[in-house]
């Protein structure tokens, strides 16, 4: 699995998400400002509700723009065992039950998932508990995180 290809897929997905969010924001804005949605009395709140939705959609557009810019400016470096896992790393993990997962450590866009030849890759950030614990780790290192009161153990199987 090539991390440059994974980053390209992440950028493409963010661009699609941005276009979708922009259309939704425009639709919400048009609904909020449409003359039929002007309040006729204090109980007529359709226009107000639409304006809240438009504001939320505009905020979402800005968040995606920020994620896209941060990911576009990410400088990928080859994995170096001396530095260990760092921002831009593509990491393979195995849990205590032998289940494998792939993660991409990005500056933003946490939770985004892309498919690389049938293999899902999840974007995490260094702000997440798992991302924080992965920084500086090397292949075969153990990683532990506490999730909802339960300790989870992982082994780093690959890093690129």
UniProtKB/TrEMBL annotation:
Alphabetized Pfam families for the sequence: GreA_GreB
Annotated keywords: Elongation factor, Protein biosynthesis
InterPro entries hit by this protein: GreA/GreB_C_sf, Tscrpt_elong_fac_GreA/B_C, Tscrpt_elong_fac_GreA/B_fam
SUPFAM superfamilies registered for this protein in UniProt: FKBP-like (SSF54534)
Highest taxon of the lineage: Bacteria
Statement: the UniProt record of this protein carries the keyword Protein biosynthesis: yes
Molecular function in Gene Ontology: DNA binding; RNA polymerase binding; translation elongation factor activity
Residue ranges constituting the Transcription elongation factor GreA/GreB C-terminal domain according to the UniProt record: 86-158
Annotated coiled-coil segments of the chain: none
One BP annotation, GO: regulation of DNA-templated transcription elongation
Record-given protein name: Transcription elongation factor GreAB
